[in-house]
Structure formats: structure tokens, C-alpha cells
Amino acid sequence: MVLNCRHVWDRISDYIDGTLDPEVRADVERHLAHCEICSAVLDSTRNIIILMADDRVFELPVDFSQRLHARLDAVLSSEAPDSA
Ligand SMILES: [Zn+2]
Known about the structure:
Elements: H1 5-17, H2 22-34, H3 36-54, H4 64-79
The structure holds zinc ion (ZN).
């Protein structure tokens, strides 16, 4: 399966948690290898989780993924309208 950016974002928290199926994980890694946007999303998501882990708070804010997706939607619509 060829993933687009949206597929990767839907799976990125599971990817970080290590709960993805091995096949899906391999697909995500293949996408990340050539996609700067998703690599940046992965890095910033990891940083947020690391910051939270320091306070022993592992749950993301309720609206975190909504805000993340809204921001990514804005990036996509302005830079890559065909990949949505
Ligand atoms: Zn991507």
C-alpha cells in the first residue's frame, strides 16, 4: 500500500507508540524516508510527547490532533493540493 501524507498523519501517534502492524509501520517508514513534511510532523510530535513525558503526563491535549490536522490541512491546501 502506498501511503499519502494524510494516511501517515492518521497513524503517526501509533507509529510513535510502536503499536502499528509491522507491515503498516514499514509503509510509514518508506513514506517518511522521502517526505519532508511528514518527517517534520513526526519530529514535532515526538518533541511534544517528550516534553509531556518529562512531567509524567502521557496523554495529548484533547484538541492536539485536531489542531495538528487543521494546521496540516492548511499546509497541504497551500502547497500540495493534489495530494489530499
Ligand atoms: Zn508525507
